[in-house]
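Quick start: what a row looks like.
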Amino acid sequence: MADILAWEKQLAEEGFGDFFVWEDGPGAFYPDHAHSGLTAPVILEGEMTRASEGQTRTYKAGERADVPACAIHSARIGPKGCRYLVGQK
């Protein structure tokens, strides 16, 4: 499991001011959507596959999956679910 406090410290140093931990069950799916600001999900447990701009990538525990402001993207949660820290700007 990734170290939440260390990640929060790093994100705060980069100017992220809002943090929360979220958890999704196995196979959860978020269809195309966008966020008004930069978001930085950090995978704590499990995995998440994100599709954006014609590319797909799977992120696993300890990896950070930044999403630029207004970028259209979708996400599918892995077979064991996913718990992640989200930093927002």
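That is the whole record. Residues 10 and 16 are 9 Å apart (CA to CA). The helical segments are 4-13.
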